[in-house]
Amino acid sequence: MRYRLYVDESGDHTYKLLDDVSRRYLALTGIAIESDYYRTEFQPQLEALKQIHFPHSPDDPVVLHREEIRYRKGHFGVLVDPSRNLAWENAFLEYIRLARFRLFTVVLDKKAHRERYGDAAIHPYHLLLTLLLERYRGYLMYVNGTGDVLAEARGGKEDMALKDAYRKLWQGGTYYISSQEFQKVLTSRELKVKRKEQNIGGLQVTDLLAYPAKQYILESRGKVPLSGATFSAKLAQVFKGKFDLIGQKLLE
């Protein structure tokens, strides 16, 4: 079977203000979805869900974005109504509960990493991409599948650097996995990069899960306080069963 890994980040890739817990940790999350299921069920069901809660013209689709939902911007202004917000949250939680995907998240403690390696520290985003793809490769081997990778666009130079990091991995492998082993399961030598504004369901869902997944890992390891009964905490309870055991990692 063919799969695609949809990738998004939570946090920033700089080594600035690392004493601030909100800036200290960078996470990269990917959801692996089988292609036929994505086409026939995952994306259409997501579009139907959005149409129910945020009615819109198909010519001007609503694109789910965590920050806009959180601050009730644009189409999401209707969520200031507590009853509509609760209905949306419950519907999305049920969608995630029933959706068939495998979730991978790797988290980097940038402060500990910088203190350990100094100026030799690898670019955080590229390090996490390597770790994420090692796990994705393992999953594809396990399910006897092949697949490619689609990441959210971040900007011209950053996208080119990320594509270059992926290309080097595909051509040269990593310390643990050879290029031949990657090429057996990764169908493209190029990383695909697109914007969520192109209404790509996989990227939208990954955007909504990236922060809760990071927090779930940090909370479970005692790095940050428990978040309580927030929507992110509710999401974590729903999707934690979709975590592959090798798909969770905190790197320090």
Describe this structure in words.
This protein has 252 residues and is α/β, with parallel strands linked by helices. It has ten helices and six strands. Helix 4 runs parallel beside helix 10. The two termini are 35 Å apart. The mean pLDDT is 88.
Short description:
The protein has 252 residues and is an alpha/beta fold. Helix content is 50%, strand content 18%.
With helices defined by DSSP (H or I, 4 residues minimum), what is the helix count?
10
Structural class, by secondary structure, is: alpha/beta
Strand order of the largest sheet: 5-4-1-2-3-6
Low-confidence stretches: none
CATH class: Alpha Beta
Residues in β-strands, percent: 15-25%
Helix content: 40-55%
CATH topology: Nucleotidyltransferase, domain 5
CATH architectural label: 2-Layer Sandwich
* CATH evolutionary superfamily: Ribonuclease H-like superfamily/Ribonuclease H
Total strands: 6
What's the mean pLDDT score? 88
The domain tally reads 1
